[in-house]
Design a protein that fits this description.
Number of strands: 8
Structural class: alpha/beta
Oligomer: single chain
Helix content: 40-55%
Order of helices and strands: EEEHEHEHEHHHHEHEHH
Number of helices: 10
Bound molecules: D-malate
Distance between the termini: 33 Å
Length: 258
């Protein structure tokens, strides 16, 4: 199993296939398994790298997290694999981590792909909800987060099999990681105003039934730059990679070839 060590933490990643490298970064409260189907499809002609972010999945225990630390871990991952720069796709919170990466190591990103995510900072009410969720998960465990979020994660027509897979991933995360991630998301910075000056191409993918980071939010991001492209995944909610892996992979193949 591939692990590397950074800042005292053993970090897990999976690597599949050969060719143009792409790193797929998971969201909250998940791990790299949410990209499993997309990774398998893309690996037919790409080198696909899927980390578990610090504290998630097989990447150890944490008490604290920040977008900067998780972004720094992605730099460490590329260093470990001797990859100077590559395309990155980040799902939701994974997108927030990549937004930070554009600040700390822009030269390592050849292409920024934001999937079902947003570019604003949390307003005061959203910050309070993060704190409430952090307290809830420490008291009641990870299944309480799955219960609270599941109704908004996928399109109304999603398959029960996919829902079960998603729930298993959510419930297997450590409560301390999920609490720390809530506070890291609460403290993330605004990104929208930085889009016009991004030094790399930007692509935004969104499920047309995403109710957490809706289509309007994706359109607003794309409108900030003449060079950004919007890719709409029909029939998908917030978890487009696990709900519509063929369609998301097709969009990513298109992006990587352009
Ligand atoms: C995610 O899917 O990573 C989260 O819904 C992001 C968020 O809560 O802002």
């Amino acid at each position: 199993m591939p692990f590397f060590e950074l800042a005292g933490q053993k970090l897990f990643f999976e690597e599949l296939g050969q060719g143009t490298p792409i790193v797929l970064v998971h969201g909250y409260p998940l791990d790299g398994r949410v990209w499993q189907d997309v990774g398998r499809i893309l690996s037919k002609s790409c080198r696909v790298i899927v980390p578990d972010l610090r504290g998630f999945g097989q990447s150890g225990h944490v008490q604290q997290l920040s977008m900067a630390q998780m972004a720094q871990d992605l730099v460490g991952l590329l260093d470990n694999l001797n990859i100077p720069a590559c395309a990155f796709a980040g799902l939701s919170m994974g997108g927030y981590v990549l937004q930070k990466l554009t600040q700390i190591a822009p030269a390592r990103i050849s292409r920024l792909i934001l999937v079902d995510t947003r570019a604003n900072a949390d307003a005061e009410d959203a910050r309070k909800k993060r704190e409430a969720m952090a307290a809830m998960v420490l008291e009641k465990g990870s299944s309480s987060v799955a219960d609270a979020m599941m109704g908004n994660m996928m399109s109304p027509d999603h398959s029960p099999v996919v829902e079960k897979r998603l729930r298993d991933i959510m419930e297997s995360q450590r409560p301390a990681t999920l609490a720390a991630a809530c506070l890291a998301m609460r403290d993330r910075e605004e990104f929208l105003s930085r889009i016009p000056n991004l030094p790399m191409p930007l692509d935004v993918l969104v499920g047309d039934q995403d109710v957490i980071s809706p289509l309007d939010v994706a359109k607003e991001m794309v409108s900030q730059s003449k060079h950004a492209q919007l890719h709409i995944i029909r029939g998908a909610g917030h978890m487009s990679p696990i709900e519509k892996p063929e369609e998301v992979s097709a969009a990513l193949f298109k992006v990587l070839k352009s």
